Amino acid sequence: MKKSIILGIALLLIVGSSLALGAEALQKNMIPGKAKWFIHIDVQKLAQTKLKDVLLGTSGSDFSREISEIEETAQISFFEDISAVTAVGMGMEDEKIVIAFSGNLNKGYLLGLLMEEESHKEIEYGNFVVHNWDDDGYGAFINDSLVLISESKGALTRVLDTYSGKGKDISTSFMGSELDALSTDMILVLAADDISGLVGEEDDFPSAILKKTKTALLTLNEKNDRIKMKLSMDTDSPETAKNMEDMVAGLRAFLAMGEVVDPEWDLIKSLKIGVNGTKVILQSEGSMDEFIKVILGLDK
Fold it and tell me: Where are the alpha helices (DSSP H) in the chain?
């Protein structure tokens, strides 16, 4: 099983059988409390939106290529067989990412592929079997409908320990209360406990503000062909929160000029930001068509 498959799955996030699947909410008991970030995509909810067809129809896109490679390798239909994908970052390095797939996984076929690998090894770990291939490929089936894949044995076993109750999960950490308040109809949930560590070395104004940002929680909700977006962040000081408010206000004013997008879009008109001490909450709502145009970078 190629290393590029694991890397390809990660690119999706930054993104079996013919049984019908239901939507799947975030499994908090699988995410270690000390995770640096995670992203959860409800694939079945995504599959019911226009966004799926647009992403697959974008010729040569990373999304389209990686979906095709996953389907070919695993002999599944991604949007029919996969119910959710969750990526967990146990560090800022790519090697410390653990990807979880849930759904109809064609487990027997995947295990058969592993058995054909000369480098394949089985490692007993508690009640689980960790599969290793090509030195830095690791995977484990938690059950028939949930599999973990990573380039780090340590990161993968941390997730296994959390799922087994041997370690604290995300409910007890930096935003457990906010996660508890989430509805179950989210397409996407993304959280990070330290945004500053994800910004990099850029020194422009937005990056300078983000480097002073601590935790962040982004959610996308779709209902009746409309998208609701909410981003909540905790900064290092009330001054930073105010600077972020000014930055968003400037962006909204620029967009209202109509040079980039239609200022009458609901996504633009509904854009609002609230500040309470060090906390910043950004919200917007608009049609799926507007959201798709923003994602694809299209003009009005």
Answer: 3-13, 43-47, 50-57, 62-74, 78-81, 107-116, 153-163, 176-180, 196-199, 205-210, 238-256, 266-269, 288-296
